[in-house]
Design goal:
There is one protein chain. This protein is mainly beta. Helices cover 0% and strands 59% of the residues. The protein has no helices and nine strands. The strands form two sheets. Strands 4, 5, 6, 8 and 9 form a five-stranded antiparallel β-sheet that branches. Strands 1-2-3-7 form a four-stranded antiparallel β-sheet, with no helix packed on it. A hairpin with a 4-residue loop joins strand 4 (50-61) and strand 5 (66-72). It starts with 6 loop residues before the first strand and ends in a 7-residue tail after the last strand. Residues 8-132 form the ApaG domain. It comes from Aurantiacibacter zhengii.
Amino acid sequence: MSSLFQHTAITAGVTVRVSVNFMPEQSRVGAGRWFWVYHIRLENGRDETVQLKSRHWRITDSNGMGNIVDGEGVVGETPVLAPGETHDYVSGCELTTNIGAMEGHYTFLHADGTQFEVAIPYFPLAAPAESAN
């Protein structure tokens, strides 16, 4: 059985796992809108408690158009992860092309309040060929 998560990055003991799914029922292909849902799991493999404070995303479409998204936390939360804990969340992305990609980083806080960045792995957004029309 294959893993739910197709893309993984590990930075400073924190693992970010991503799975992504095209959502034809939420897309409006005739209007040039394609929608994906992505599920992210954060895993704290460090020996200290850390807290996610912010996110930075680079979203690009197949025309080379880019969008930067910066914000506090993820889906309204700034989760605190003790050693060995995980945090899962689901969000979505809409593009005006049927192919694109996302990547970026999270900013976490060490227990002493200093910051460190954790990579979000590059992952493609690709709708099935039949939805390109």
